[in-house]
TrEMBL record:
AAA+ ATPase domain mapped to chain residues: 27-208
InterPro entries referenced in this protein's UniProt entry, alphabetically: AAA+_ATPase, ABC_transporter-like_ATP-bd, P-loop_NTPase
Pfam families with a match to the protein in the record: ABC_tran (PF00005)
Alphabetic keyword roster: ATP-binding, Nucleotide-binding
Entries under SMART domains matching the protein: AAA (SM00382)
Protein name: Energy-coupling factor transporter ATP-binding protein EcfA2
Source organism of this protein record: Kibdelosporangium banguiense
GO MF entry, a single one: ATP binding
C-alpha cells in the first residue's frame, strides 16, 4: 500500500489548521513529520486517516482518493483530543476500550491476560498518565496495529509524554518491520535526534521515508 498527500491543507473556522503539506509512505516504511506545537500534527494525521476532508490538495491510497478505505486501513494512535485515553482513566479500562475496538475479548480476564503478555500487568490499576511513557506508547501502538484490516499507523506526538525518542521510536520501527506503513509526528527537537529526514508541516518537500523491511515494501 502507498499513502500519498499532495499539498494537503485544512482550514478551520478561525483560520488554517494545516498549511499545504506533502508526504508519502508505503507498507514497510516509516516516515517522520515534524512541526512546532499546534493543531497541524493531529490535523494531518486525521486527514491521512480519512477522518478529515482536506480543504486543498489530496490524499490517495494506492493512487485512489477514497476516505472510506483510508478509515478502514489507517489507525490513529494516541491522538490528542481525539482518541488519547481520558485523564484519570485506569490503564485496565483504557486497554478494555482498545481491545473492544480491535474486535477482541475485552472483559476483565481478557484485559489481565493481554497485559500479562505485554509484561505490563503491574500497571493495570494505574492511571494512564502515571504509566511510563515507553509502556504507554508501546501498548497503544500494539493495540492499534491489532485492529482488523489496519495497514498503516499514525502515531501522534509521542514525544509530548517524554523528551527521549528512544522510548517510542523502536516501537514505531517494529511495526514498520511487520509490514505496516508508519507515520510518526513529533517536535523539531525530537526529529533532530532521529536518523531520518523529516517532512515538515506547511512544506511541500517530501523526504524519502525509511524502508525497514528486507525486499520490496508492500
Amino acid at each position: 500500500m502507498e499513502i500519498r498527500a499532495e499539498r494537503v491543507g485544512v482550514n478551520g473556522p478561525h483560520g488554517p489548521l494545516l498549511q499545504p503539506t506533502s508526504l508519502r509512505v508505503r507498507g514497510g516504511e516509516i516516515a517522520l513529520v515534524t512541526g512546532e506545537p499546534g493543531p497541524g500534527h493531529t490535523t494531518l494525521a486525521l486527514t491521512l486517516a480519512g477522518r478529515l476532508r482536506p480543504s486543498s490538495g489530496s490524499v490517495t491510497l494506492n493512487g485512489r482518493t477514497d476516505a472510506a478505505v483510508l478509515r478502514k486501513h489507517v489507525a490513529l494512535v494516541d491522538a490528542p483530543d481525539v482518541n488519547e485515553p481520558e485523564d484519570g482513566l485506569k490503564l485496565s479500562n483504557a486497554i478494555a476500550e482498545e481491545l473492544l475496538h480491535a474486535g477482541l475479548p475485552s472483559n476483565r480476564n481478557a484485559v489481565r491476560k493481554w497485559l500479562q503478555t505485554q509484561g505490563a500487568d503491574i500497571y493495570a490499576g494505574e492511571r494512564v498518565e502515571h504509566v511510563p511513557a515507553a509502556v504507554r506508547t508501546r501498548l497503544l501502538v500494539e493495540l492499534a496495529a491489532s485492529r482488523p484490516g489496519v495497514q498503516a499507523l499514525m502515531i501522534d506526538t509521542p514525544d509530548r509524554h517524554t523528551s527521549d525518542p528512544g522510548t517510542w521510536w523502536p516501537h514505531a520501527l517494529r511495526q514498520a518491520e511487520q509490514g505496516l506503513a508508519v507515520v510518526v509526528f513529533c517536535s523539531p527537537a525530537s526529529a533532530s535526534a532521529l536518523p531520518l529526514p523529516a517532512a515538515r508541516l506547511g512544506h511541500d518537500d517530501q523526504p524519502d521515508p525509511m524502508p525497514v523491511l528486507s525486499g520490496e515494501p508492500q
